[in-house]
Each structure stands twice: as C-alpha cells, then as structure tokens.
Amino acid sequence: MKILITGASGLIGTALQKSFAEKGHEMLLATRGDPKKPEQIQWDMETGFAEADLARLEGLDAVIHLAGENVSGLRWTEDKKKAIRESRIKGTHNIVNTLSNLENKPKVLISGSAIGFYGDRGDDVMTETSPAGDTFLSDVCKAWETESRRAEDSGIRTVLLRTGIVLSKDGGALATMLTPFKFGVGGVVGSGKQWMSWVSLDEVVGVINFALENESLRGAVNIVSPNPVTNEEFTKTLGEVLYRPTFLPLPEFAVNLVFGEMGDALLLASTRVEPKRLKEAGFEFKFTDLKAALEHAVK
C-alpha cells in the first residue's frame, strides 16, 4: 500500500512507521518543516499542501491523519485551547478538501479522535453510538469528527479513531506518570473511582492495520481494551509492576489547583468505554489484562 501519514513523528505515528515498514508499505510522511528525506512531503495545518506537491498524493491507498496539538500540559490557557481546537479542525478540513479534489482518491481515511468525545460519564458504559459529552474536549472531538466525515461525501471510506489512554513509556499519560511512581510518590488521583479506558500502543497499531484491511469497518471506532479499570486499580497495578509504593494520593483540590481545567478533563473525568465495533468486527485483542499491558509498556 501507499500510505500518507500526518503526525508521523508522534507516539502513534512513530510506531506505525515501524509496522508499515515491516509490512513493506510505501509511506509518505507529512512534515511541517522543509522535507529532508525523499519520503517526506511538506504540509501545513493552516494552508495544506503546496500546489506543486499534489501530484505526489495521487493514487494513495490510505491516509492516516493523526496531527494535532498535544492536549497535555500544566494548564490550558485560552491560547492552548485555541491551538488544540484549531490544529484539529483546520488541519482536518484542509486534508479532506485536498483528498476530495484528487483525481485518484485514496480508498480510506483513518482519522484521529479520542474517547474525550464522551466527556465525564461516571460509571455509564460508552459505546460508539453513545452521545457526545458537554466538555471542551467533547466539543473538539465532535467538530474534529465532523470535518473527517466529509470525506465520505467523496466516496472515501472514513474511520474515526476514538482512542483511549495509550500505554507507552515513550509518551502520553503513562510516560508522565512513570517519574513520580518510580520515586515512590505515585498514588490515587482524586477519589480513585473514575474509570480509565486504556489501550496498549501495540494494540493501537494493530487496530489501524485492521482498519486498513477491513473494508467493512467505518465510522467511529473505540480503541480501548475490553477491560477498563478505575484509577485506584490502575494505580495499584502500576505500583506492582514498578515495585513501588502508591500511598501518596493527589486530592481533587490539588488537581484543580495545579492543573485547572486540564486536570478535570484528563485526570478526574470518568470515561468507561467499550470497544463494541472492534469486537463485532472480529478484532483479536492482544492485551486485555492491565498488568500484562503495563509490563510490556515499561520494559
């Protein structure tokens, strides 16, 4: 396959490159800077691709669109929130417009999203047909997915990756957690009763390969393990894997004080998600046990 990847230097994009190389796929990697390798192509979230490069996009088999401003950080300022939103909405708008105007369009667009779509939902189980929440991230995901779905109007099969908490020592939430836990100062966040819908990085790569190969899969797809856990269980399990104590809690007021809205969304919100469409499509999960997934992630 000939595949274009945006966000190729991110956590998931980097893992995808390795997987696609092993499978012998030809890759075209979107980059913001000047291309330094033959497989790179310049792309800007605001302006899209240069007119002179459009011919290189003809005849693509697939596009994996992962680019977007990192949502983590100490606090969400108004500028940060604007960057989170616009990088996804404008970037996706430009990608879909470009693909729709190609003479030889790709067969599939696999576009990023997140389980932040559902917002803070307590103990309720979310499937792909559950309504969106009413948080900032919910609104971003709704608008993001709306832009992606426009590709369907041009006959491009579209898959929306509603991805959970990705487990990897190289980036994302787990990488942030590892330092305090290794020093023995990790602990339950808030009440500890909030649900965490996690997924191994290897599983994310597996799902994207599955989506490339299964033409019946389209629309929103929850990329999470079938076995979400509470923050309390996650904390206990990570402590066991690292052989570290987990007795120093981070109270809700401290989360609000230090992280503000970002802390509410990423640390305190409870999102219990089921990968219903993957199970119905026959996807075989490699990591359904949290301890095994964490051991794999930190090795």
Brief description of this entry?
The model has no long low-confidence stretch (mean pLDDT 96).
Protein architecture, described:
39% of the residues lie in helices and 18% in strands. An eight-stranded mixed β-sheet has the order 4-3-2-1-5-6-8-12, with helices on both faces. A two-stranded parallel ribbon has the order 7-14. A two-stranded parallel ribbon has the order 9-11. The chain is of the alpha/beta class. Helix 2 packs parallel to helix 3, helix 6 (231-242) crosses helix 10 and helix 7 crosses helix 8. It starts with a strand and ends with a helix.
Summarize the SSE layout with pairings.
Layout: E1 2-6, H1 11-23, E2 26-31, E3 40-44, E4 48-49, E5 62-65, H2 78-100, E6 108-114, E7 125-126, H3 136-149, E8 157-163, E9 165-167, H4 172-182, E10 195-196, E11 198-200, H5 201-213, E12 219-223, E13 229-230, H6 231-242, H7 252-259, H8 261-268, E14 272-273, H9 276-281, H10 290-298
Parallel strand pairs: 1-2, 1-5, 2-3, 5-6, 6-8, 7-14, 8-12, 9-11
Antiparallel strand pairs: 3-4, 10-13
